[in-house]
Amino acid sequence: MPTTTPAIHRGLAGVVVDTTEISTVIQETNSLTYRGYPVQDLATHHTFEEIAYLLWHGELPDDAQLRDFQARERSLRPTNRTTSALLARLPETCHPMDVLRTAVSFLGAEDPTEDDGSLTANRAKSLTLLAKLPTVVAADQRRRRGLDPIPPSPELGYAENFLHMCFGTVPDPETVRCFETSLILYAEHSFNASTFTARVVTSTLSDLYSAVTAAIGALKGPLHGGANEAVMHMLLEIGDPQRAEEWLEEALAAKRKIMGFGHRVYKHGDSRVPIMQDALDRLVARAAGPETTRLATLHAALQHTVIKRKGVHPNLDYPAGLAYHLMGFDTPTFTPIFVMSRIAGWTAHISEQLAHNALIRPLASYDGPGQRPVPASIWCP
Ligand code: ACO
Fold it and tell me: In order of start, what are the domains of the chain with their CATH numbers?
């Protein structure tokens, strides 16, 4: 009987696997909305805490709801001694994303909350991770610099507190706003690879910490969240704005992907880039100096050259990578910062997946050998 070959959607490109109420990219206007609100407006007028609340609850908080949310988040920021001691024992040769993945797994093992998969239990776990991950990331960067950790401050907002834990001081409001903008833009992006990973794990009715641990693993790769670090390595490798064109030709000839460019969903430019680029421009203006000017000129020159030569546009990681460098973060801390933000989106999706769960289990078209007998020598050695 003739069989029809099923259509293969390698990389699930163009496949719609479920519905979501959390966010969408509106192709006609090339804009991203969280729960219906344009992210440009959210990034201009709101804080990251409000965005996390919006993603989890579907609406922005009123004053009382925000105060309650902030109080609970701030009270959960410290990590206990066991967690800190465990993380301090990890080799400094491991990537900070490995530290974060280990931290989430350990926090899950320690969490006494009953694992009934209920929305209430998952909201509590989500808030625990949102609050504690910045403490872990900041302590890890300081450890690698040979410095003692700085405890979280309940007096400071999410972005300010993280910057204070990293650097021992809260930078100027413009820098804090630039950092907060990046957190808001990174917070959610529908069924991207790491969010889908979290949904796959959740679909088996596994727990939230397992889903987030797996999502961190997916985000680490340079085709996804790891690209913000790869952008910085690339800029430092090129070094001189005059070399951008020559470097690009060599990279394309070697079939290298240009980090921070291209996107599965946006083919005419990432809607988040103009907002982040604007924040980066303001940061560059503040931090003026020969090194900053050289990097900013190179950044602009490479962008111009890649668009002209390949027609591929920058994604959010391109301006965010340089912005984090100029703020003073070590390059390996860039992707963990992405985690601190995307944890809001991942956990919103975990709750949504559980609310209408169906086990995620696609098919594959087999193209290995046909059925054949096992050789007798294998049965009777
Ligand atoms: N450098 C060079 N060429 C590129 C790039 C790039 N960064 N991105 C896309 N292209 C080209 C491809 O070579 C291909 O050209 P061709 O048709 O002539 O072969 C075409 O654009 C389509 O590219 P695909 O790889 O098929 O697009 P896909 O949707 O599969 O890939 C991806 C998207 C993985 C993000 C890709 O653009 C890439 O590797 N970018 C670099 C890594 C990166 O920046 N990742 C961050 C993504 S955003 C985020 O996670 C926040």
Answer: 33-356 (1.10.580.10)
> Does the C-beta of 342 come closer than 6 Å to ligand 1?
no
Cα separation, 310 vs 302, in Å, equals: 11
Q: Report d(CA 13, CA 49) in Å as an integer.
A: 32
Cβ partners under 8 Å of residue 98, min gap 6:
90
Q: Which atom of ligand 1 is nearest to the CA of 193?
A: 50
Inter-CA distances, 211 with 97, 104, 354, Å: 15, 10, 12
Distances in whole angstroms, Cα of residue 105 to Cα of each of 87, 118, 138, 318 = 11, 19, 18, 30
As a whole number of angstroms, the distance between CA 321 and CA 182 comes to 10
Asked whether 205 and 100 are in contact (CB, 8 A), the reply is no
d(CA 71, CA 157): 10
189-231 pLDDT per residue, tens: 999 999 999 999 999 999 999 999 999 999 999 999 999 999 9
Residue 30 buriedness (CB in 10 A; 0-12 / 13-18 / 19+): middle
Q: Residue of the nearest CA to atom 30 in ligand 1?
A: 264
* Pocket perturbation via mutation, ligand 1, pick of 256, 312, 316, 342 by most ligand atoms within 8 A of CB: 312
Does residue 125 have its Cβ closer than 6 Å to ligand 1? no
User: Could you give the CA distance from residue 267 to residue 85 in angstroms, rounded to a whole number?
Assistant: 45
Question: What pTM was computed for the model?
Answer: 0.96
ipTM for the predicted complex: 0.97
In a 3-state reduction of DSSP, which class is residue 34?
strand
Query: Residue 310: CB within 6 Å of ligand 1?
Result: yes
Q: How many CA atoms lie within 13 A of 8 on its CB side?
A: 7
Atom of ligand 1 nearest to the CA of 262: 37
- State which amino acid sits at residue 281: D
Q: Kindly give the distance from the C-alpha atom of residue 259 to the centroid of ligand 1, in angstroms, as a whole number.
A: 9
Backbone torsions φ then ψ of 23, nearest 5 degrees: -155, 160
Give the integer Cα–Cα distance in Å for 344 and 330: 23
Select from 10, 223, 231, 265 the residue to mutate for testing ligand 1; criterion: most ligand atoms less than 8 Å from CB.
223
Is the pLDDT confidence value at 55 over 60? yes
